[in-house]
Amino acid sequence: MQEKESFLGKITLFSELTEEERKQVGDILHYRHYKKGEVIVSEGDEGTSLFLFQKGVVQVTSQITLKRTGDDKWMEAEKSIATYDEVKMPFFGEMSLLTGAPRSATVKAMTDVELYEVFQKDFYDLCERNHTIGYKLLKAIAQVLCGRIRSLNQNILKLTTALSIVVSKKR
């Protein structure tokens, strides 16, 4: 297991923190290990933490409702949204960390996974004790969320364009 401060220095979320600030963040990290196939978080569950990848691969899925082929019945299905690792997405759960909102997706270990968990109470206590750390981390999380919103907006535009093409061809 890497030293926590060294580990944090490799994650962009913590890149603006000094070594001493990373040490303070390291003090609130809780090591977690999940075996291949284990569910880390489930969609809809209470969420009050963020997870940082040390190593491993996870699959992110969400429930969707689909119309069954050949009849008017609807069914629930699980849709894979993404596969993440420490390079693609070094952390997840930031929405639940900030808001305490229920988990928006299910995250399952595709390999053995090592994570650090940051609990909301510990995070906000640290931000209160050290406003500089709080500012730097909230700014970094906001930048990540803005990037994700921008990407989602582009996806929505593509989907609505495709839908309008399909609908216009049926007329």
Automatic annotation (TrEMBL):
GO terms for molecular function: cAMP binding; cAMP-dependent protein kinase inhibitor activity; protein kinase A catalytic subunit binding. Residues 13-142 form the Cyclic nucleotide-binding domain. It comes from Thermospira aquatica. One of its GO terms (cellular component) is cAMP-dependent protein kinase complex. PANTHER family: CAMP-DEPENDENT PROTEIN KINASE REGULATORY CHAIN (PTHR11635), CAMP-DEPENDENT PROTEIN KINASE TYPE I REGULATORY SUBUNIT-RELATED (PTHR11635:SF152). This is Cyclic nucleotide-binding domain-containing protein. Signal peptide: none annotated. InterPro entries: cAMP-dep_PK_reg_su-like, cNMP-bd_CS, cNMP-bd_dom, cNMP-bd_dom_sf, RmlC-like_jellyroll. Pfam families: cNMP_binding.
